[in-house]
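Ticket reopened. Same input as before:
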Amino acid sequence: MKTRTQYLFVAVIALLVLGVDLLLSPKMDSSVLIALLSWSAIGQGVIAMSAAADLSQGKWIAAIRPYLQQYYPWLLLFPLVFLVFSRHVAVYNWSHHPNGWLNPSFFIIRNTIALLLPFILAHVYVKASQNKSQRTGLFAVLYIFSFLVSQSFMAYDQVMTFEYPWINTLFGGYFFVEGLYGGIAFCAILAGILLGKKGKSFQSAYRDFTIMIMGFALLWAGLFYSQYLVIWYGNIPEEVSYLYKRMAVPSLKYMGAYVLATVFFIPFFALVSRKIKSKPLAVGFLSLLIFSGLLVERMIFIFPVAPHNPPAQIIQFLLLALPFLYLLFKQSRQSQENP
Amino acid sequence: MSSSEKTYEFHAKEDFLEKLEELVESGIDKKNLSTLTPFHVHEVEHILETKPSALRFFTLVGALSGFFLSFVFIIFTVLDWPLITGGKPLISIPAFIIVSFECTILFGGIVSMIGFLHLSRLPDIKKIVNPRECGNQFIIIQEQVGGDK
Amino acid sequence: MNLQPFYQQVEQDVLGAMRKPSLWYWIALVLSAGAFAFGLFAWGYQIFTGMGVAGISHPVGWGVYITNFVFWVGIAHSGTLISAVLFLFRARFRSAFNRIAEAMTVIAVMTAGLYPLIHLGRVWRFYYLLPYPNQRILWVNFRSPLIWDVFAVSTYLTISLIFFYVGMIPDLAAARRHFTGIRQWVYKVLSLGWEGTLNQWRHYNRLYIFLAAFATPLVVSVHSVVSWDFAMSIVPGWHSTIFAPYFVAGAIFSGTAMVITLTVPMRKILKIEKYITVDHYEKLSKVLLVTALIVSFSYIVEMALAAYSGNIFESTVFKYRMVGHYKFFFWLMMFCNVLLPLSLFVKKLRRNIKFLFVLSLFVNVGMWLERFNIIVTSLAKEYNPYSWGTYTPTLAEVGITIGSFGMFFTFFLIFTKMLPVLSISEIKEQGK
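Engineering reply: fixed in the latest deploy. New output:
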């Protein structure tokens, strides 16, 4: 798909998200935010994998890099969706007694910029990479830096402020790693499809992505555990209330167990087996489990503190999934055209 | 070592691999072929179609036993001397996971090392005293069947 | 292609470095052994006179000893990163450093492991830390981070030793061909009769992969456990979820700097410059840059969130770090860890070995100061204003610190002469 058409679709999807929001969501609603948090991490992660490919100059990932770079126009979707969410800023408690940092207009401006920055830098980086410019490495680094800043703002500003004055210093890094993890899971699905359709040149990329899923599953579990252990052990009332709210309610507790199972336990232990590693269909299924786990985790963050609307949430989640589906579907189509 | 043994010595890795492939194709049983090399040559494993190393069983047994034994031990100690510290429950799994994780790795590593020594038949006292030095040569050893042991 | 001359050259160069030491070597050895002896004397003095000769008291109960403990464990982690983690990533440049890195790990962990003992009032009661059935009918408190430390550091020492030794077996077999007399016997025994048969290489290869796979989570977990010594408390400035990855990144940062500090003079003295080249150092400097950025990010996040949360205790401690009694060390730390490493964005500087050496010295200082900063300032300014105080290291503590550096360099120098400093079989395998 030409870049111009992609931007057109970005506008269409953003308008659809706005439409659903206006039609289905009341004034105080966080459904858009949940969908945004889930997909922005994964989307920015996909371009980050391409940037990592350019920086490490690894031969294993070189074949898949152009496919990943096709995704970058869709990154514009996220600041637009955030602007749709901005009409719900009242959902944050601090919006009723704002201070210097936490006030609605500054909040909206800085977070829009934080989501716009990765798009701009992705654009610059991808153009440099496609032209094989000398500055590709520099722009790749700048992009990854903007990805980190963007996810940090999503974590500290958009999620953590619901629980003000609770702080969790690891939150930003945690979202960043989840973004990378989601990006890798997506790359594994893509590599599996390309392996089936285009053949052996994607073998090493596919194999290495499955190993990276295991590594990042372990890293994710470590970061999750770091947060849980410190809060649980310190048992400070104003801190532990965050965990308590999410573990005392049975539905949230089961969602938590689901997250642990689908983001760490099942992918990690399943991929120990060489047989499962070699089946793209199985790995694809595991990646989808990971995506579902990341989504449910966002729900656990938001549900206890903000109202949400299930129909709006589901539709908006699916709308934001469209670019990813297109990227996967397009590969199959393209390869069927050239047998 | 039996006297019915033929050795081929090479300076270059490529010549060594060529000869090995030749010997295999000429119908010699792969079980009778073995090599001595100054470093690990992966292609030899492909040509001789060796089974994957049995070391992984040692590692798995070591790691799993480390994990479970450590939990059993910790929970026993905590029930034997039940002291509530820091308001934490007696059997506080989040805290115990760390020690178990370390013991998994500790036992896994040690048992793997023992497995390696066993599978490689090291240390070999005879070879310590009088090692067979092949220098930097790549050597193929062909055991001749049909003679003495 | 007949690479025999290359193989022989590698053996000669690496094993030749183990022969007669030069004058510079003896000078270095005497200086570090002297420092080591001074440290031992200071420790003996502390044991005989009592813990009061150290400056630690109320409210700062942890001072330079724990700073050194965390510092040395951190140095060790980078060694494992280079030898184990880069092996799993198949990074070829690692073979120039991995033996040195593994030796550094083992020696640093041994040095670090001494500090919990130095810190004890009654050193001879150290075995209280170990869970064994005793007539006091006691068990250790498995819920305590200090016990997690015991297991983490012991596991780390054991696995690092196994990894270091196993990796050396083929090289020790090569060494036994080039020496005579007692040295030859030592290498014969240590190489266990290794021949290089197919089976031996197969199992060796698997073991190396498994040990690398075990050592990798150790890199993350051990320093996370050490960081949880602080994060599990409720001391303001310590109780923070980011501590685990922040300390791990900091460990790799300081350890990589130490690898540079060690190898730059070493390659000159041992004449192995052609095996450790500028390209290798450029790759190391990229590791240095990335970890410096992670550490800087952590500083920013911690300070920003302390201000954001409005928590009076957190914000007081962070303000104290910037403008209080220890502000000189805080700003020096910022300069060494945040500002200076930004110079590594410039390619020319990344490829300048002299610059990297000087930078690595600053980073070592900066990272030592970071641990000092975290530990001492938070304890000096805790919740209750009545118990606020300061801490000044005494001569005994300074002596033991110098002694730990002396111990590290002494053992490292002995290693360079007794054992092959480069991985001969790996370099042969990589070819020209």
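Residues 4-430 of chain C form one domain. The mean pLDDT of chain C is 92. Please confirm and we'll close it.
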